[in-house]
Design goal:
- The protein is α/β, with parallel strands linked by helices.
- It has a domain of 69 residues: 5'-nuclease (Rossmann fold, 3-Layer(aba) Sandwich), CATH 3.40.50.1010.
- Helices cover 23% and strands 25% of the residues.
- The strands form four sheets. Strands 3-6-7 form a three-stranded mixed sheet. Strands 8-9-10 form a three-stranded parallel sheet, with helices on one face. A two-stranded antiparallel ribbon has the order 1-2.
- Strand 8, helix 5 and strand 9 form a beta-alpha-beta unit.
- The longest helix is centred in the middle third of the chain and has 14 residues.
- The radius of gyration is 28 Å and the shape is extended.
- The termini are far apart.
Length: 211
């Protein structure tokens, strides 16, 4: 991650100075709920995702020039069926009895993350703490903040990590650049192996004279 972000500091004149990296996410869901299909109790605080995120945040807090901004998850207090399975139900391909515990998910929604992003962009822009901002995202929620930053003279670059973006976003940014490896790029075919050179044939044995 750091290699990808720091690659944005490179320019034709050398290397820009980093002000700060802001990392936005939500704390993991820590409650229990019963899966409506399997009737099993699910402790979300002990899932691999929750364990990884807590350990990840702990390490991020130790890094220099990085600010961790955590929003909250709003509890939807219910389970939802994945869209693909809803379509199969409506098309008559499956019945309710055919659903498995992996066909449903607990309804959770991020709250406060977009607001934190907007406030940080506005604060940095108004205080002239940076001349260039790079936002790693792919949605349109940042457009108002990007407009404000550009009006304040900020060079605003979007890094969608090679994901396609809405063409309407181009009028609200100053550049588009992805620095992570492109997952859609096909690897170059390997050069054909050179066949080994066969060993040279031994020289013929001269005839032996018989007295």
């Amino acid at each position: 991650m750091f290699t990808m972000l720091l690659s944005h500091l490179e320019n034709q004149q050398g290397r820009d100075e980093l002000y700060r990296i802001f990392f936005y996410d939500c704390e993991p869901f820590m409650k229990k709920a019963h899966n409506p299909i399997s009737k099993k109790s699910v402790d979300f605080s002990k899932t691999p995702q929750a364990t990884f995120r807590l350990a990840f945040y702990k390490e991020l807090k130790k890094l220099r020039k990085l600010a961790l901004r955590l929003g909250a998850l709003q509890d939807g207090k219910g389970w939802e069926i994945y869209t693909r399975k809803v379509k199969e139900l409506l098309d008559g391909k499956i019945q309710i009895a055919d659903l498995t515990e992996d066909d449903v998910y607990y309804d959770l929604r991020q709250k406060g993350v977009d607001m934190k992003i907007g406030l940080d962009i506005a604060s940095v822009a108004f205080k002239k703490q940076a001349e260039k901002m790079v936002l790693v995202a792919g949605d349109t929620d940042f457009v108002p903040a990007a407009k404000l930053a550009r009006r304040e003279g900020i060079d605003f670059v979007l890094d969608p990590m090679w994901n396609p973006i809405n063409p309407s976003l181009f009028e609200h940014i100053d550049g588009l650049k992805s620095t992570c490896p492109n997952p859609n790029r096909r690897p170059r075919p390997a050069a054909p192996a050179t066949p080994p050179t066969p060993p040279a044939a031994p020289p013929p044995t001269p005839p032996t004279a018989t007295p």
